[in-house]
Automatic annotation (TrEMBL):
The keyword DNA-binding applies. Signal peptide: none annotated. The keyword Transferase does not apply. Residues 6-87 form the Core-binding (CB) domain. Residues 110-293 form the Tyr recombinase domain. This is Putative integrase/recombinase. GO terms for biological process: DNA integration; DNA recombination. It comes from Mesorhizobium amorphae CCNWGS0123. It comes from the Bacteria. Keywords: DNA integration, DNA recombination, DNA-binding.
Amino acid sequence: MGAAPAEPQPLVADFKTWLRKHRGASDATVRLYARDAAGLMMELRSDPAGWKPNDVRSYFLERASNSGSGTIKKITTSLRAFLRYLAVTGRCQAGLDGAVPAYAHWQLADMPRYLSTEQVDRLIAACDGDAGARRRDRAIVLLLVRLGLRAGDGAQLRLTDIEWQTGSLRVCGKSRYEVRLPLPQDVGDAIAAYLECRLSTRRNDVLFLRTIAPCRPFRRGDGISSVVKRIMKRADIVPPVKGAHALRHTAATEMLRHGVPLDKIGLVLRHRGIDTTAYYAKADVALLKQVAQPWPEAL
């Protein structure tokens, strides 16, 4: 570690540009990866060309010892991505990403966390009313709970993404993966009702705006998730997971219960692999009971 210190900011800035250009990463992902990359640079305080596996491993273990499982997984992913970037650009030795230990976690081991049908009805009812804020809230909730959009997807929606003539919605999500989803009648009605009172502005065509002056668009998914949290509190619902992602889980489990095949659910949710979608099959306890085989000892 005796080499001359490298200036972290240019390296991190280049890394952010690379993430956007070559990985199609969202702004939220870029911020997360850049934060962890900057932390590594500041801690090791040396030219990456001189980094050793033990240096990287020690830094990771120190961070992990003070973090929860969710944070550890994010740190693992971001540090490996940064180290691969440095290796590809010739700034550190190849294979240094292997010094970041694998986190012992069984993929898809937990149960999906979703709202019951009764809770969904209460959530939608909590958006009743003709006020602009209530109309907007209803459109947001229905989009998330019917189509399983991520909060970030909702924040990025533009007026031109709604194709009224074909009854479809254009969604561009992670890694710039764009799809067209069918627009359910109740969702379309809710959006149309919101647009009747939405503030008209020439500056942007973002669909959902804040209701407090100067009524700017939501910058990212956090704003949409905060709206959902407030509605849940208004409906006196204690969700299994905070924020808007509970509605994505709910949409998936509802589709499954209505007989929609897993591959079709995966298309709506824009999953890259069927294994991710199969995670929701565990939520249908009634169906699992039908296929479960009895233990001989219990006969």
